[in-house]
Amino acid sequence: MTINETQAQAVIRCLEIDVDFYRELTVFLMKKHDKILEDDLGWLTESLNKEQAYVMKSRSLEDKRISLFEGLGLGGMKLSEITENSPEEYRPKMKMLSGQLTELIDGIKSLNAETNEVVKRKLDNQREFVKRAGILEKPETYNRNASRVAGGQSSAKAFREV
């Protein structure tokens, strides 16, 4: 299938939008990674809405890309196929944008994997700290009859004696 100039220009504009978005997302995720290393829970808590907005925008961009490609008659085609079948003068820009997009997405995957590993190590360290401190030992609890139901023998007798 031969791609015409209008289709090629639309694909390029879509790729430019995606590259800009993923650059912005990369900056945010790098900052998030740093804040996790710094244990900046305030910033992390405040950033949850922003992170959710990025997730929603990512989904929206993907839905729009799919709709655009289908509307252009390019649905189901790989970007490499579109590039190969585009007019010669558009191929270098498409290849460049495609490469940038691939690099950004790979970087985001790598950064997310690193961040997840840092969080896992921090949680494991906290779990070990709590365990050593004895905080996880079951507290004593009582039922309505003032009888101890966990952590030892019943104390109902003591309450009745008072």
Q: How would you spell out the order of helices and strands?
A: HHHHHEEH
Q: Could you estimate the helical fraction of the residues in percent?
A: over 70%
Identify the overall geometry.
elongated
**Distance between termini?**
92 Å
- Beta-strand portion reads under 5%
The biggest beta sheet reads:
2 strands, antiparallel
- Average pLDDT confidence is 88
Number of domains: 1
The strand count comes to: 2
Comma- or semicolon-separated keywords:
two-stranded antiparallel sheet; disordered C terminus; single chain; 3% strand; 162 residues; mainly alpha; 73% helix
Quickly describe the structure.
The chain has 162 residues and is mainly α.
Q: Topology, pairings included?
A:
Blueprint (H helix, E strand, L loop, with lengths): L4 H33 L3 H6 L1 H24 L7 H6 L6 H43 L7 E2 L5 E3 L5 H6 L1
Antiparallel strand pairs: 1-2
Structure, described:
By secondary structure, the protein is mainly alpha-helical. The protein has one domain (5-161). It has six helices and two strands, in the order H-H-H-H-H-E-E-H. Helix 1 packs antiparallel against helix 3 (48-71) and helix 1 (5-37) packs parallel to helix 5.
